[in-house]
Amino acid sequence: MVKFSVFAAGLQALGVKPGDRVALFADNSSRWFLADQGSIMAGVVNVVRSSQASPEELVFILEDSGSTFLIVENWATWQKLKPLLGDLKLHFVALLSDEEGGEGDRGAIPILSFAQVFQEGAYGSVRAVPADREQLATLIYTSGTSGRPKGVMLSHGNLLHIITAMPAVVQPEVGDRILSILPTWHSFGRLVDYYFLSQGCTQIYTNIRYLKGDLQTYKPHYMGSVPRLWESLYEGIQKQFRTQPTTRQKLIHTFFGISQRYILARRTRQGLNIDNLNPSGWQRFLAFLQVLVLGSLHQLGDRIVYQKVRQAMGGQFKLSFSGGGSLAMHLENFFETVGIEVLVGYGLTETSPVLTARQVAHNLRRSAGKPIPQTEIKIVDPQTQQTLSAGQQGLVMVRGPQVMQGYYQNPEATAKVIDPQGWFDTGDLGWLTPTQDLVLTGRAKDTIVLSNGENIEPQPLEDACARSPFIDQIMIVGQDQRSLGALIVPNMDALKQWATTQNASIKLPTDARTASPPGTRILDFNDPMIQDLFRQELNQQVKNRPGYRPDDRISTFAFLLEPLSIENEMLTQKLSIRRHVVMEHYRDMINGMFN
After folding, report:
1. 490 and 524 in contact (C-beta within 8 Å)?
2. Residues with Cβ within 8 Å of residue 543, at least 6 apart in sequence
3. What distance, in Å, lies between the first and last C-alpha atoms of the chain?
4. Which contiguous run of DSSP H or E holds residue 139?
């Protein structure tokens, strides 16, 4: 608290006043947290984003938010922003690094080191700011791959609600260790840090490069995460398994097969099998017998195999939280088997972010858990807005103290997502179980959330790819996957013309065998020549698009030989793709692409 106060006093001494916008463009470190809390203590609205974002995006955020003070990761971050600032007025720039400050060459903007801000604060005490839960605390800008990013306005009350509601989910002990790997500027990582520090826990910052070593060194009790992290851990463990002698690999495989049956029976007995939420007495009895018979073998597998997996993760894990997308079922099964408790939750930046979370006593796999205290959830028909009963799929609407104040200086966008009664439209589809667990099934809006938590708007990518002469129609997919995929309706005329230049011809699955000129190569859609052609086309069109990011890359694709049309109900009257219809119709094909 002393350091927070000194940093806050330093900002005030440098001219920062309550209500001013202070941009904080930096990444995970204790100094980030100190700057975050110090700026809030000074009464400002901090505007957070990663220093790794594009310079254009960061400058847009600076300008849109009205920030007049800037805190950045280091000198390099400042250097990449400086040429794009134009007439934007900044009173000072502070570095979180130990690099020496001075004066910038844009109108002699003072450039301060981290130590210099502290020196300014050491000469006086922080001036108290009146406490007001409704006061704007922070602006967090959503990813802007389609149109401009929107600034989510979160108040002190929004943030405090999550901190006061989380004890219903987990109660850590003073001194427990939490490994912080989520981006601190992201709403999920930020609130996880806030909550555990408020409970007297010790926080250790890490990243994916040092994760393995830090798990062993610090032996954390808790960790916030996204599905991609669990995928990486799973792949690393499987890689270790594959290095074992063949006989041991077979033994491991046998134990996992037995344990998978054991945990499924245990879920059924507890009423936590999402495919059978209300088992009959007979089904519970059969499950009880399976648990009884398989339990000792599962425990043997634990002593021989699973315990070593837990030791590789530090050996003291109590549980972890996962957000930013659903967890694949094979990951759910694996980590439950080895004894790593993962509680999946759900929320959005616009909801501070937590709406629902599983609990240890009711960890219903494949669900997003129950609403946290004071949070209302209803499922409505997307067309009629009528409330639906438990088990019926519809649009997820939420209301509670964590819902944002709105989008900054964008009342039109705010009105589209928050109705006069305060219900926020999440844009997600799902259903509620009889016990009020939320099960998400897809997205009503187009945004795709990858397993690393990155948001991708598909329309701009589709528009770019459609520029290829070989692509007639395209739909981007990849919800909860590691990367994007695409369903492609090829332009057959262009493709056949290309084939003739390759001394080849195209063979469709429905083609009768017809005579081809001697020496002509017959190509089908699995032929490497066609696969390479489309891979090059996709990469070229996506990379040439303004604002390209690595997560925009399309890693897999499949061909549709039936065009999307109004007649087959895959296009609207406005010729827009009905994504949920296409997803449902080609679900097996899409799953196959990623498997």
Report:
1. no
2. none
3. 49
4. strand 136-141
- Identify the CA nearest to 502 among candidates 518, 488, 523, 525: 523
- Rounded to 10 degrees, the C-alpha dihedral 11/16/18/19 comes to -120
Asked if 369 and 375 touch (Cβ cutoff 8 Å), the reply is no
- For residues 411 and 394, is the Cβ–Cβ distance under 8 A? no
**pLDDT at 147 exceeding the cut of 60:** no
Question: 107 CB contacts (<8 Å, ≥6 apart)?
Answer: none
pLDDT range class, residue 595, cuts 50, 70, 90: confident
Strand order of the β-sheet with 102-103 is 102-103, 110-112, 92-95, 69-72, 21-25, 45-49, 136-141, 151-155, 406-407
296: its two tokens: 């000792």
CA-nearest of 278, 40, 314 to 155 is: 40
Domains of the chain: 2-130 (3.40.50.980), 457-594 (3.30.300.30)
What residue type is 12 in one-letter code?
Q
Give the tens place of pLDDT for each residue, 213-234.
999 999 999 999 988 899 889 8
Evaluated on CA atoms 42, 44, 47, 52, the torsion sign reads negative
Distance, CA of 8 to CA of 324 (rounded, Å): 32
Amino acid at residue number 349: T
Model confidence, pTM = 0.82
Inter-residue contact 538 to 544 (CB < 8 Å): no
Q: Which residues pair with 85 in a beta bridge?
A: none
Quick one: tokens of 595? 């498997």
Q: Give CA separation, 119 vs 1, 12, 13, 82, 122, in Å.
A: 16, 12, 10, 25, 5
At residue 561, the pLDDT reads 86
Residue type at position 210: Y
Alpha-helical (H) ranges within 219-363 are 227-242, 246-270, 281-301, 307-312, 329-338
Asked if omega into 528 is within 30° of 0 (cis), the reply is: no
Give the model's pLDDT for residue 572: 67
The one-letter amino acid code at 74 reads: N
